[in-house]
Amino acid sequence: MGKGGALSESVLKKIFLSYTYVSVWIFLSFTVIVYNKYILDPKMYNFPFPISLTMIHMAFCSTLAFIIVRLLHLVEPVTMSADLYLKSVVPIGLLYSLSLWFSNSAYIYLSVSFIQMLKALMPVAVYSIGILLRKDAFKSNIMGNMLAISLGVGIAAYGEARFDSWGVILQLGAVAFEATRLVMIQILLTSKGITLNPITSLYYVAPCCLVFLSVPWLLVEFPVLKQASTFRIDFVIFGTNSLCAFALNLAVFLLVGKTSALTMNVAGVVKDWLLIAFSWSVIKDTVTPLNLFRVWACVLGCCVL
């Protein structure tokens, strides 16, 4: 009886922690998405420079992680060889920079609700890439559910009131890069013989991401920003936005490390519903009956995974 009680308590604690991680991630993801939309949208704050915004986030994350690890010594750095860094951290940094760049760019062209509908493809992408990288085993019933979700997304795209081909391409690219990154984080955390906590993960990945982003920034956005000499950065807006992004990055690494990339993306269906409801009621995005049908199809598909 004592053993059973202890086992039951351990299971309940694990379930409680898992739901806590998911809840924190949903809240922070919701906040960052809405905040980024506000900053990037030409009809709102009107800062249509997604690479610049992403670089501000990465610079903030890199600086804060460096202070925590190197100056305050609150977290011990991980001993990492140059070979391991190049083979694991650098690819993750590249994928992360592309994912953030493409995803933030999509907010200029698409509504929040439609972007969340396209993001429903994330479990499909994570599962497929997990199979390719031998992280997950192929199961025909799961793949069938994934294909049903993909079909639902196609219906949503067909019925979208504000459809922009370039925005869709950007968001689908972001999904592909993000799915690959999430699977590689799992491999880095569990299969390489090292342990990275959320802070040390940012300590190593964020500067790498910042370097990769600097290349397209110098070519694409810097010349435009240089001409717009009258623009001044609002430190309150960008500071609080960066702080939210930092917290979200910690939550992602923590959630993927404690559960799995697929679990996080299936849980993201709840976040999608919240964002669609918010964008429809507050931002006044148009949500068609076909859009809602797609959401229901994805919910049913994810619930039976």
From TrEMBL:
Q: Which PANTHER family match?
A: SOLUTE CARRIER FAMILY 35
Transmembrane parts of this sequence: 16-35, 47-72, 84-102, 142-159, 165-189, 201-220, 235-256
The UniProt keywords, alphabetically, are: Membrane, Transmembrane, Transmembrane helix
Ranges of residues in domain Sugar phosphate transporter: 21-301
Principal subcellular localisation of the protein:
membrane
Q: Name one GO cellular component term.
A: membrane
Q: How does it sit in the membrane?
A: Multi-pass membrane protein
Any Pfam family hit: TPT
- Give the highest taxon in the source lineage: Eukaryota
| Compartments (UniProt record) | Membrane
Protein name (Swiss-Prot/TrEMBL): Sugar phosphate transporter domain-containing protein
Q: Which InterPro entries match?
A: Sugar_P_trans_dom (IPR004853), TPT_transporter (IPR050186)
